[in-house]
Amino acid sequence: MSAAISPLAALCLRCTLAVGLFLGPLVAVGIARSEEIKLAKNGAGLVLFVSLQRQSMS
After folding, report:
1. Is 4 helix (H, G, I), strand (E, B) or coil?
2. Phi first, then psi: what are they for 3, rounded to 5°?
3. What is the pLDDT of residues 27-52, one digit of tens each?
4. Using CA atoms, how far apart are residues 22 and 56, in angstroms rounded to an integer?
5. Cys-Cys with 45: which of 19, 29, 40, 56 at CB 3.0–4.6 Å?
6. Residue ranges of the alpha helices (H) in the chain?
């Protein structure tokens, strides 16, 4: 099957994989440090979250 893939397609696939491996952790750290996620778990966002969880349990 590897003989059917052109060398250019294989090179593009390798480059995409390399970029994904380098950028994946950076994106994950960026999401983890995002202010929007932190704000959603404080104050009114937390109250709404807890009340929705309680409603879904009953």
Report:
1. coil
2. -70, -25
3. 888 887 776 656 556 677 778 888 88
4. 39
5. 40
6. 7-32, 35-40, 44-57
